[in-house]
Protein: LPS export ABC transporter periplasmic protein LptC
Amino acid sequence: MQGRTNTILFPLAVLGLLALITLWIDRTVQPPEPRVDGTTRHDPDYILNNFVTTKTDATGAISHILKASEMRHYPDDDSTELTNPHFTQFGVGKPTTTIEGKRGHVSSKGDVVEFRDDVRVVRPAFADRPEMTLTTQYLRVEPDKEIASTDQPVVITQGPKSVVHAVGMYYDKKNQTIQLNKRVRSHYERPAAKPQASKPKAASKPRQAAAKPAASKASKSTPAGNSKNAKQPTKTK
Structure:
């Protein structure tokens, strides 16, 4: 009788164990229930107008300044949205670069700043290089690495005569290099040569002919009384 009871209870115990394992697996793979405390919503926890932040390097010099007409911070992903962002990057021995757009996004760590809609980058002229302007609809900037990149079409204007069109760009400010990915088209006009000023000819001095006065010979007049051909008077008796 006891052996028969053990024979019946053993399969029941196995089935119960399998049921518990199945329940545990089901609970494990199921997504967590949505929280209703508002932490999962993408709503800003604070908003700032005329936002300005400044970062310095190890020596205390200003590295870059980020401005925006409005800044919104979101606690769910610790990100920041910007309206009309304006970024200025400084560097020792390097030109100051400015970047602006209609919208911007800052990562939670602050190491990536994204610009969107009518993005414009200006690097002023320095040394023997003319001013460079870049326009696009999207630009990813890593301020600490001084790197800017995009996978969107770009237009680069350098000086008044050089224009480059491309799709995709990688700009390294530290090394002053720029890489264009594809569909590159360039237009360049050679500056017109400056006309050389003609040297004025030296005025020639007029030659003055030394006029020698002609020697005039005086004509000798013979008096009538001394003329050999004069006839002597005839005496009359």
